[in-house]
Write a structure and sequence with these properties.
The chain contains 9 helices and 10 strands. A hairpin with a 4-residue loop joins β8 and β9. It starts with a strand and ends in a 13-residue tail after the last strand.
């Protein structure tokens, strides 16, 4: 990995305070409020309005749990400089299961019969051991071993936990190259999509993590999956607006969506990625495989 999280001593030695920040850390309350609002806006006149509204309910439940039961101050011992909160190796606390139960309790009164059946027959009846096994599969990117209806809720709880962990580690970082940036430098998880920023980071592309919600900088015109730059193409369903494009790579046959805040400052990685699922269908028809992960769409076994 080419982005290193700096210790307190290294932060003091950092000479240039005007460097582009390699990593941006999310504010949980602001992130969840923006995402839920965006999902509800995108649901208007959308063919998948019901699912977007369901996703908004899940996001609002994450916010509610965060406000009522925030993660206590953690004691981190010997964190790695690279991927300090690696999803596969970090020893997680069982508090994420408390978060899961609170999210399920919040969702049930609003959910349809199918979702209620999943909650009551599969998640509420599951033992802590079974829940931990499902979590391990998801964090190990073994998505085919957990059905999507359960994965959405388990990931929502895990993400809430990891987001708060990310808030408590050092927030300064240094980029040490441009290779191996296709996974999050904080937790090692796949990105949802990339966002081209406006404002102080005008024109810079940041990939948005699907788990800890951090964002990391990657230069444009470079594949987010294999680092190649020769066979890249941009696709969109509406060339005039082009708020969201899919960047495809002919070398690794993958794609990841890119969103442009200059087209709409309210664009939000998870919400807009979910709402633009028809672009995913178009890319799959062109034989490109999605390299990212949306927490509301888990890949099928054959993928």
């Amino acid at each position: 990995m080419s982005i290193k999280i700096l210790s307190a001593d290294e932060i003091k030695q950092k000479k240039n305070s005007y460097d582009i920040p390699p990593v941006l850390f999310a504010n949980p309350k602001n992130l969840y409020q923006r995402r839920a609002k965006r999902l509800r806006e995108l649901a208007k006149d959308h063919p998948l309005a019901d699912y977007l509204l369901f996703a908004a309910d899940v996001v609002e439940s994450q916010l509610s749990v965060f406000e009522k039961n925030p993660l206590e101050k953690q004691s981190f011992n010997n964190l790695n400089e690279i991927e300090p909160l690696n999803a596969k190796t970090f020893k997680r606390s069982s508090i994420w299961i408390e978060y899961l139960k609170e999210i399920l309790h919040s969702i049930k009164p609003k959910a349809n019969e199918q979702v209620v059946a999943t909650i009551e027959n599969h998640l509420e009846k599951a033992s802590e051991k079974e829940l931990e096994e499902m979590a391990t599969h998801l964090l190990s990117q073994e998505y085919n071993l957990v059905s999507t209806d359960k994965a959405v809720f388990i990931w929502a709880a895990l993400s809430l936990y990891w987001l708060q962990l990310a808030q408590q580690i050092p927030h300064n970082s240094r980029q040490e190259g441009i290779d191996n940036l296709h996974y999050c430098p904080v937790c090692g998880s796949a990105p949802v999509a990339s966002v081209v920023h406006i404002g102080t980071s005008q024109g810079l592309r940041y990939l948005h993590c699907s788990l800890c919600e951090s964002e990391w900088n990657l230069v444009r015109a470079q594949c987010t999956n294999c680092n190649e730059h020769k066979n890249l193409e941009m696709w969109s369903l509406n060339e005039e607006l082009a708020l969201i494009r899919a960047e495809t790579c002919g070398d690794c046959q993958s794609y990841l969506k890119m969103m442009f805040q200059e087209k709409d400052p309210n664009v939000e990685a998870v919400a807009d990625d979910l709402a633009s699922i028809f672009l995913d269908i178009e890319m799959e028809e062109k034989d490109f495989a999605r390299s990212g992960l949306n927490p509301f769409i888990f890949p099928a076994e054959e993928v």
